[in-house]
Amino acid sequence: MKQLIEAIVKPIVDYPENVKVEKEESVNRIVYKLSVHPEDMGKVIGKQGRVAKAIRTIVYSAAGSHQKKKTYVDILD
């Protein structure tokens, strides 16, 4: 899942080397924390959050079929 998030985000940012995804797992959920260069934050979020929503939708649908735990994507600033 980490590689999927990186594959989606790296092509749309200006600083792909600053894309970092950390996984935080608990009993009933998995949280992927995405951090990017401050200048790329707008590109990752998109107008009215459309890009962020699309990233989350892809990750949720991919995770839903493979994992029993609830999956979340947080974009850190």
Structural class: alpha+beta
Q: What's the shape?
A: globular
β-strand percent reads 25-35%
Would you count the extended β strands for me?
3
Helix content: 25-40%
The SSE order reads HEEHHE
Strand numbers in spatial order across the main sheet: 1-2-3
Largest sheet: 3 strands, mixed
Q: Any low-confidence stretches, pLDDT <50, length ≥5?
A: none
Rg, Å, rounded: 12 Å
Average of per-residue pLDDT values: 92
**What is the end-to-end distance?**
21 Å
Structure, explained:
The chain starts with a helix and ends with a strand. By secondary structure, it is of the alpha+beta class. The chain contains three helices and three strands, in the order αββααβ.
Write the layout of secondary structure elements.
Layout: H1 2-9, E1 20-25, E2 29-35, H2 41-45, H3 50-66, E3 70-76
Parallel strand pairs: 2-3
Antiparallel strand pairs: 1-2
